[in-house]
Each structure stands twice: as structure tokens, then as C-alpha cells.
């Protein structure tokens, strides 16, 4: 029997990530090849015409799984009945703007979109925040949508996770699909900590540890980390635009694994509400290693953390605490 369509909201849908993401969702990359979808696309009035163009292209592509498109600049219409919300829309930093100015704009966007989701989304709606500052936007959304369970509000660090897999695969000249269990800890920013302490590469009989295969701790603790931390800036320098296809693809990976589950023995990185695991302050949206089952994520427990890693986990937590304080100061 055919499944009922899932309603997926994409905010900022007329932007460049939106343009890469919506066809992926409509092709089943996010929710599977047998899952029909209805797309809800939101953008702001100056982008209404471009948004309508995206809708026209979605119709023209004749995706078999796509059962409808709601393209609107009305946040309530956009949020009504949605089962999954991918929050890509936000206010970008412009020349001459202070950090606080950008934070203030995004805090007010995420505050009002939180209320619309809380009141109008379907019960159990899962939320993924992509727009920067992703962790703190997700935190504000959580604060202003108190009836949405905190487990349902996450932010995207899967792109950083995939970037780390990519760097290891290039370095070792192995298939990226054979590398697993890297971890991104903390903020989706240059203080994030890409950690390979527990990462492995598939071997003919079992698995080998990345640390043993690379056997160059200086690279693993130096260039590898900074390359992943600064990859977003490197893409902007090269493209004169921030990452879009890799961000869209990683957003699909995030939701797919959350809804359909992570493979046995594999974890992924997600920005989730901290419960104090690994002595990360509770009450931050922080990227942890997680496994997913039956539509729920759980933080992987019991991993050993050496002193080098501890310092890095704490530094990115400190930055998130400062961002949280800044966001709250914008509310008052
Ligand atoms: P973009 O400027 O091309 O698109 C953003 C869209 O959001 C625009 O169409 C804009 O009109 C819309 N928008 C602005 N305010 C809105 C609002 N209140 N409601 C709905 N829509 C609104 O930007 P992009 O390249 O698509 O990137 C989107 C965001 O994703 C940026 O914040 C970027 O920094 C972030 N990003 C995050 C990651 C990650 O891994 N977390 C990776 C790449 C980019
Ligand atoms: C990325 O990681 O590619 C983006 O978050 C960069 C950015 O500043 O938009």
C-alpha cells in the first residue's frame, strides 16, 4: 500500500541551499525512494518571485514522489501540518555588520518561526536548523517552542562530519564509504572539534583504526583539524558563495538517519540539546556522536576522551555559552 505523504518544510527555499535541497527531497534522497512528500517552501516577500520560479521548476521536473508544493511567504501557511522542518532561511552577515547585529536579526527570526511551528506543525515534527549560527538559532527555536520536545530540535553538523570523512578518505586513498565514526564535537564554527580518536576504516577482515593507518599524529592534530574547521571559509573563498550542494546533501543525510536509523555499529554527528554528557554544559545545542533508532537519536556514551580532546570539547562549549549569552542579550 502506498505511504501517506510526509510534509517537509524548507525555509529560505529560494536561496542557494534551498535550490539544491528541494529536488533531493522530491527524489527521495531524504526520506527514501518509496516515501511521497509534499514540499512547503517559505521565503520572504522580496524573494517571492524567485520562490515561485522554484515551484515552477519542481512541477516541470515531474518527480513521481512529489505530491504537492506549497510556496508561500506566510509563515503560518508554511508551517501548517509539517512533519519535518528544515530551517535554512536566515539573515546573512553583511559588510560592516557586528556579530551582535547578525545575532539579533536571527534571534528575532527564530523566535517568531518557533511560535509558528509550535502552533501549526504536526505533532512530533522534527526540526533541523541549517542557518547560521546554526546551534544558537536551534537553541532559540527550542526556547520559544516549549511544547516541541527538545529531542525534536537539532542543528546541522553532518556537513562537518562528512567533510572529516572526506579528508580521511583522501589522505588514506580509501573509499569514503569505508570510513566511519569520526566525531564533530560542539559548534558549527571554526571552534568545532573534528575527532578521529575512535574512527575506523573497513578492512577485508574487520576494521582498522584511523590513528594507526595515518600514523602521523601531527597531521591528525594539526592540518586535519584546521582543514575541517575552515572548510566552509575555503568554499566561500573558492566559489564566492557558501557551500550549497554539500550542505543540502548533508541535511538529507541528517534527516534520513534520524528518521530511518543509523547502520549497526555506526554513529553520526548531530547538534542536539546537551544533557550534560561528556561534561558538556547542559542547555546548549552541541554536536555529539549519536546513533538513531525508531526516529530517536541517543548520544553515544562511554567514549574515552584524552586531555587533548578534553580541551577542545571545552573550548567549543565555551564559545557556545558565549553565543547563548549574546543571543539572550538580544532578546532583552
Ligand atoms: P542564501 O542567502 O542563498 O539563502 C537564504 C534564503 O533565506 C534567502 O532566499 C532569503 O531570502 C531567505 N530568508 C531570509 N530571511 C528569511 C526568513 N525570515 N524566513 C524565510 N526565509 C528567509 O543562503 P544559503 O547559501 O542558502 O545559506 C543559508 C544559511 O545556511 C546561511 O545562514 C548559511 O550560513 C547556512 N549554512 C549552514 C551550513 C551548516 O552546515 N550548518 C552550511 C552552509 C550554509
Ligand atoms: C559552511 O560550513 O559551509 C557554512 O556554514 C559557511 C558559512 O559561513 O555559511
Automatic annotation (TrEMBL):
The chemistry this enzyme catalyses reads: (S)-malate + NAD(+) = oxaloacetate + NADH + H(+)
What molecular function terms (GO) are annotated for this protein? L-malate dehydrogenase (NAD+) activity
Segments forming domain Lactate/malate dehydrogenase N-terminal: 6-153
Where does the chain bind NAD(+)?
Answer: 12-18, 43, 106, 130-132
Active site: which residues? 188 (proton acceptor)
Which residues belong to the signal peptide in this entry? none
CDD domains attached here? Answer: MDH_cytoplasmic_cytosolic
- Entry's EC annotation: 1.1.1.37
Q: Which domain of life is it from?
A: Eukaryota
Q: Does the keyword Ribonucleoprotein apply?
A: no
SUPFAM superfamilies tied to this protein: LDH C-terminal domain-like, NAD(P)-binding Rossmann-fold domains
Keyword set, alphabetical order = NAD, Oxidoreductase, Tricarboxylic acid cycle
Which residues does the record give as substrate binding sites?
A: 93, 99, 132, 163
Instruction: Tell me the Gene Ontology biological-process terms attached to this UniProt entry.
Output: tricarboxylic acid cycle
Transmembrane annotation, as ranges: none
Checking Pfam families in the record gives: Ldh_1_C, Ldh_1_N
Q: Which residues form the Lactate/malate dehydrogenase C-terminal domain?
A: 157-325
On whether NAD is a keyword of this UniProt record, the answer is yes
Q: Which family does the record claim for this protein?
A: Belongs to the LDH/MDH superfamily. MDH type 2 family.
Record-given protein name: Malate dehydrogenase
What organism does the record attribute this protein to? Dendrobium thyrsiflorum (Pinecone-like raceme dendrobium)
Amino acid at each position: 500500500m502506498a505511504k501517506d505523504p510526509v510534509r517537509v518544510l524548507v525555509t529560505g527555499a529560494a536561496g542557494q541551499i534551498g535550490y539544491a535541497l528541494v529536488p533531493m527531497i522530491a527524489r527521495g534522497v531524504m526520506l527514501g525512494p518509496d516515501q511521497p512528500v509534499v514540499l512547503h517552501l517559505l521565503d520572504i516577500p522580496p524573494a517571492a518571485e524567485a520562490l515561485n520560479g522554484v515551484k515552477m521548476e519542481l512541477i516541470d521536473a515531474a518527480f513521481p514522489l512529489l505530491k504537492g508544493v506549497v510556496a508561500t511567504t506566510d509563515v503560518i501557511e508554511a508551517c501548517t501540518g509539517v512533519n519535518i522542518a528544515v530551517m535554512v532561511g536566515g539573515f546573512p552577515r553583511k559588510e560592516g555588520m557586528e556579530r551582535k547585529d547578525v545575532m539579533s536579526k536571527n534571534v528575532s527570526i527564530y523566535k517568531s518561526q518557533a511560535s509558528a511551528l509550535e502552533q501549526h506543525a504536526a505533532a512530533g515534527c522534527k526540526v533541523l536548523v541549517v542557518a547560521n549560527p546554526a546551534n544558537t538559532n536551534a537553541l532559540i527555536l527550542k526556547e520559544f517552542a516549549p511544547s516541541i520536545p527538545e529531542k525534536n530540535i537539532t542543528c546541522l553538523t553532518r556537513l562537518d562530519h562528512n567533510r572529516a570523512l572526506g579528508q580521511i578518505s583522501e589522505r588514506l586513498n580509501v573509499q569514503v564509504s569505508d570510513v566511519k565514526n569520526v566525531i564533530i564535537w560542539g559548534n558549527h564554527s571554526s571552534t568545532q572539534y573534528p575527532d578521529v580518536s575512535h574512527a575506523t576504516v573497513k578492512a577485508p577482515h574487520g576494521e582498522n583504526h584511523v590513528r594507526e593507518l595515518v600514523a602521523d599524529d601531527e597531521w591528525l592534530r594539526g592540518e586535519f583539524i584546521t582543514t575541517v574547521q575552515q572548510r566552509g571559509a575555503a568554499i566561500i573563498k573558492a566559489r564566492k558563495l557558501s557551500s550549497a550542494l554539500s550542505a543540502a546533501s548533508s541535511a538529507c543525510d541528517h534527516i534520513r538517519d534520524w528518521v530511518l536509523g543509523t547502520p549497526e555499529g555506526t554513529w553520526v554527528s548531530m547538534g542536539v540539546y546537551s544533557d550534560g554528557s561528556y561534561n558538556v554544559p547542559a542547555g546548549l545545542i552541541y554536536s555529539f556522536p549519536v546513533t538513531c533508532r525508531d526516529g530517536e537519536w541517543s548520544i553515544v556514551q562511554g567514549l574515552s576522551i584524552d586531555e587533548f580532546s578534553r580541551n577542545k570539547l571545552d573550548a567549543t562549549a565555551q564559545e557556545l555559552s558565549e553565543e547563548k549569552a549574546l543571543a539572550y542579550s538580544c532578546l532583552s
